[in-house]
Amino acid sequence: MKEMIIYIVNDNINIIYKEKVLSLKFMSIKDGFIVNREKFIFEFLREVKNNKIKGKLLGDKINIVKESFYSISDLYFLENLFLEMGFIKVKFLNIKEYFKEFFSYIEINDNYMVINFDKGLYLNFTYYKNIEKIIEYFKDSLKKDVILFGTNEKITKIRIRGLNIYYLDNKERYIIESLLKVKK
């Protein structure tokens, strides 16, 4: 895999390039979104240079993991951001392609969760704090087998009557591990 893959989760950016994964905390990222464009460009270019992955990279293609809750404006923002930094083509990898169809997937992170329906439902824990009640509310729309993953420490304590709940052993790195297998 020559092309870079970007995956944003929590306040971190995961940069996957040449079988290596850099997981970095950026001040310009908050709860899965870039909140400061200029600061993000500075942080991203600094880390690319410091980790010696710049070389001929800029001017190349870049792949960005498209979260199921991203809107068209989010995608437009990301595409323009990376084109502005010198990448010649931005391709989006749909996160749902890494999910098996016969499960429902719920990503639970530190400050938010995403229930992956046809369109992802993003819930910030500022307003919705009880994870079990949220899942219970949407129980009828979920498949019987539910896979929980993410960075939240409470994941393994979640139990919902009538649902088979599974937890990924490598929950923090589930998507990243899948992305390492992507052939471009």
Gap from first CA to last CA: 6 Å
Give, in order, the helices and strands.
EEEEEHEHEEEEHEEH
Mean pLDDT figure: 86
Number of domains: 2
- Main sheet: strands, sense, barrel: 5 strands, mixed
Q: How large is the radius of gyration?
A: 17 Å
CATH topology of the largest domain: Nucleotidyltransferase, domain 5
Low-confidence stretches: none
Q: Which superfamily, in CATH terms, is the homologous superfamily of the largest domain? A: ATPase, nucleotide binding domain
Percentage of β-strand residues: 25-35%
Helix content: 10-25%
Helix-and-strand structural type: alpha/beta
Highest-level CATH class of the largest domain: Alpha Beta
Main-sheet strand order equals: 3-2-1-6-7
What's the overall geometry?
elongated
Do you know the CATH architecture of the largest domain? 2-Layer Sandwich
Number of helices: 4
Give me the count of strands.
12
